[in-house]
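Researcher: Please predict.
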Amino acid sequence: MPIFQIHHITKYEYDRPVIESNNEIKIFPFLSSDQEVLYHDLNITNHPDVHVFTDYWGNKTGTFNLAAPHKELVIESKLTVRTTPGSQLRMNFHEGWDQLKADLNDNVRLMELSLPDEIKEQQSIDEIISSLQIEHKSVALVVEQCSEFIYKYFKYIKGITNIETTVDEILNLRSGVCQDFAHVLLQLLRTIGIPCRYVSGYICPNKNGMRGEGATHAWVEAHIPGHGWAGIDPTNNVWVTNNHVKLAVGNHFSDCTPVKGTFKGLARQKLSVFVSIGYEDGHIFEEQTHVKMEAMEAEDKLPPLIDEMAEQQQQQQQQQ
């Protein structure tokens, strides 16, 4: 059972003071039998009070406000976690579709997570499913095949997509990163009728090496009938084991965003994200990312990142 030390820093810098920075964070480890939190320390600029609650999806979530003028916001998380092998590797969970229907019966949450989005390129999704020839195969095997298709036919390329990139755009590009591949897999599985959810977290050092190590990562959990939630990582085409640390789950990325919020002020902002993951043998994987933030004018309208926070004039948005 490996132990990982994870250091995650989100840093916003502003070219002039801003005020009333209201933020929501989901950088707390998800409560799960597959991971044990040994230590977690959270440090935020000016040490604001953090209101912690459990959201609709079961994620531990924090909110805080920096009312005083400030030109920098740093959110630092230091986590030590022990992971255990995924339970799906210790049992046969290849149940069939009749059992899936029974699991879905009167389960509103599962039914909600089995509905695909309305997209323009749905025909592309249907063609992929048709090519897989899923008839007479178990639910788990179909999940594996969908993951394998993305791994084989979508290129892992950083920098060509962002958090606003749609599934339609990803299908046309046939390229992207872990977040993009997770969203495509969600659309595939939900079109077939398999409940599934987006997962955010980290992928930790592995002897064989994996794409996305040492950084924030995303994958999918599918509901396997007779078993429950089982994680699968289309970026690396593997069932999730003890190299993945889970932070949050949801319908899409927007439900799992590590940091998002709003502030008041006419300022340009810079965002950088640093993640360091250390293994027991001393190896450390690090990644520093500088995120391009689009400047917004005072008269621009904001999408509501946090309920009721977008009503104030001259507010800006910030999101990791």
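Model: The first helix runs from residue 97 to 104.
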